[in-house]
Design a protein that fits this description.
Layout lengths: L18 H19 L8 E3 L5 E3 L4 E3 L2 H8 L2 H18 L27 E8 L6 E8 L10 E5 L13 E7 L6 E6 L3 E2 L6 E5 L4 E8 L2 H5 L17
Antiparallel strand pairs: 1-2, 2-3, 4-5, 5-11, 6-7, 7-8, 9-11, 10-11
Helix pairs in contact: 1-2
Length: 241
């Protein structure tokens, strides 16, 4: 800072600087320091508008040059707003605000590996509804060493979803899974399953560790006329002489 050519000071005297002059000099030093150490292109709050000036999207301030914007980023207002934004984001995401400093590389958490212990025992029984004559299956799978608080899951899988056999549209697969056992799949005919109450049910017995699943296929006649309603017929009028 030039101390000797100030108004009111003696030659080579070095008078006292005013508060405004000290502030100008401080901002100039901060601007030079920021231009040497900060890459402005990576600043998420830096924006150049259509008028050619620069804006701070965090503080909503306008600047005539990049140097002016960089000096603003070192000021108290910008730093305070940065701290408020960080505190708000930390509160919303429920994590402790990290310490100020260079970001540390994230360490990937090791995934918990589940050791499979083999396939479970099972029994498959063909069933038939005595009233509707629908055919179906009853599956009973034993899981004596199933993981605690785990219930077996199931899903029907199309022929083109599996990668073990050559796809065949005439068949579909029923997959049943429960940790730590291997998943098992049953190959059944590709017919619509009747999911009406009483026709499809599952049951898990935590005491005997047995999972039961029973379903019936829809009859071909019912599938053919599904969604159609019968039209009432009216007897023709009787002719009178």
């Amino acid at each position: 800072m030039d101390f000797q050519n100030r108004v009111g000071s003696k030659h080579r005297g070095g008078g006292m600087a005013s508060a405004s002059e000290s502030n100008v000099d401080r901002r100039e030093r901060l601007r030079k320091l920021a231009m040497e150490t900060i890459d402005i292109t990576k600043d998420p709050y830096f924006m150049k508008n259509h008028l050619g000036s620069y804006e701070c999207k965090l503080c909503l301030t306008l600047h005539t040059s990049e140097g002016s914007y960089l000096a603003h980023t070192q000021g108290k207002k910008h730093q305070t707003n940065l701290a408020r934004r960080a505190a708000k984001e930390a509160k919303e995401s429920n994590f402790v605000q990290p310490a100020v400093g260079p970001a540390k590389p994230a360490v990937p958490q090791p995934r918990h590996a589940i050791i499979k212990i083999g396939r479970p025992g099972y029994r498959v029984t063909k069933v038939r509804d005595p009233v509707t004559h629908q055919l179906g299956f009853l599956f009973q799978v034993q899981y004596p060493q199933i993981t605690e608080d785990v219930k077996p899951r199931h899903r029907f899988m199309g022929a083109y979803e599996q990668k073990v056999e050559t796809p065949n549209n005439a068949y579909q697969y029923l997959v049943i899974a429960a940790e730590p056992y291997e998943s098992i799949a049953f190959k059944i005919q590709s017919t619509k399953v009747d999911e009406t109450p009483g026709k499809f049910w599952t049951h898990w017995d935590p005491d005997s560790k047995q999972f039961s699943l029973q379903f019936f296929f829809k009859n071909e006649k019912n599938v053919m006329f599904e969604g159609m309603t019968a039209v009432p017929t009216v007897a023709p009028p009787v002719a009178t002489a």
